[in-house]
Protein 1
Amino acid sequence: MKRCTVTIINETGLHARPANQFVQASKNFTSDITIKKGDASVDAKSILGVLTLGAGKGSEIIIEANGEDEEKAVEALAELIESGFKE
């Protein structure tokens, strides 16, 4: 299992368009991917799950992946968040 902690830096947080970008990027990997915020843990490939996290600007989340491409998945998703979703 690969894990990484990142902070949401874009103004809108992980809502609507950024959440959709995150989910679509997650679907490019075969690994099981979850996002954790506090006590909540959701499937990174589920738009509804990602939106229910309520991860706004400044929120710290943990990305976890388990599978063949876990390292690439975590790196790519962390990079997407750290780029502010190119907003």
Protein 2
Amino acid sequence: MKKWIKKIVPLFGNFYFSTGVILFLWMIFIDPNDFISQFRLTSKRNNLENEKEFYLQKIEEVKIERNEIFGSPAQYEKFARERYLMKKPNEDIYIYNQD
């Protein structure tokens, strides 16, 4: 054990080694931009980029659907009847559940 201590003590006497160790510990635990925070932020950024791709894809799907629906008056009327249960004044609507 004494040999181990005799090897370590001179290292901490070296100014550059001591400064390096202190700087390393500072960067790992104390600094607001420490490695742990950087890892968390990188992980969060990756998740947000994945969500962005998902929502951009959904926006494209909605644009295509919108162009199909509003392209002709017949499609527009079909969409209103199916989705919002709209009807003409002299019609009745029957809804069937398929559960």
Protein 3
Amino acid sequence: MTRSQLIAEIAERADLKRATVRKVLDAFATVAAEELAGDPPGEVPLGRELGKLVVVERAARKGRNPATGETIEIPARKAVRFRESRALREALS
């Protein structure tokens, strides 16, 4: 599904204009980014049926350059992960 398709589907189901849905999605993205980048990082709930976005710490590790085969150090970093709800997990299985 593309972003345009998502906007169209939400607009149709919620009986809203596409421009309104686009503004809501843009505002959601801004709020989510601010919350996840905060200190300390927060969580962004997406509803009981869906799950939430959380920040996780990724440990430093060794990797390999596929072109040269050279071993490189990949530094530790933060990443955003989606944690699905129990309802979604059960619906998918």
